[in-house]
Design goal:
6-stranded mixed beta sheet, alpha+beta, globular, 6 strands, 164 residues
Length: 164
């Protein structure tokens, strides 16, 4: 009986961790839609409360999103992360030049989520935020990973911005 309960708990935990890893495809044909990623970031920062965010570049980018900058099929990306590593928020925007690169970008996103949800790597509240307040979204040639208490609203804003 203990083995069955332990197996059920392990399965539930695995499903919780996987919830953030799903890719959601936004509605509508956004293949040719353009998004000004800097403007989207600035609008999001104005509309939602984020801690002090910085653009991750160089070593910081490679530490948080290893391999993203070297992926073929990625035209542009912006990774915004809090200045304090314990703050559970993040906003990453990617523009694909080749839609077939979406799987590779998703793998990088999944690795970031896994790194932030490993037991002992973060505070319990931070892990909880990455599990419950994280969304990966793909709309046309754009991808977003967001971690924020208002992640669903930010996802809706992202999808709406690409419907225009």
């Amino acid at each position: 009986m203990k083995k069955v309960i332990a197996l059920a708990l392990a399965l539930m935990m695995a499903l919780c961790l996987c919830a953030c890893g799903k890719t959601q495809t936004g509605p509508g044909p956004a293949q040719n839609a353009e998004l000004d990623m800097t403007a989207f970031y600035e609008d999001t920062m104005e509309k939602y409360e984020f801690p002090g965010m910085v653009l991750a570049e160089g070593d910081m980018l490679e530490m948080f999103y290893p391999g993203l900058s070297a992926l073929d099929g990625v035209a542009e990306f912006q990774v915004y992360t809090p200045m304090m590593t314990g703050a559970p928020s993040e906003l990453t925007l990617v523009k694909l030049s080749d839609p077939s690169a979406a799987g590779a970008v998703k793998a990088v996103f999944d690795a970031r989520v896994a790194a932030c949800t490993e037991e002992g790597m973060n505070y319990p509240d931070t892990i909880d935020a990455w599990v419950n307040n994280c969304r990966q979204v793909t709309v046309g040639n754009y991808m977003m990973l967001v971690v924020h208490t208002d992640c669903d609203a930010i996802q809706a804003d992202f999808e709406a911005a690409l419907q225009k």
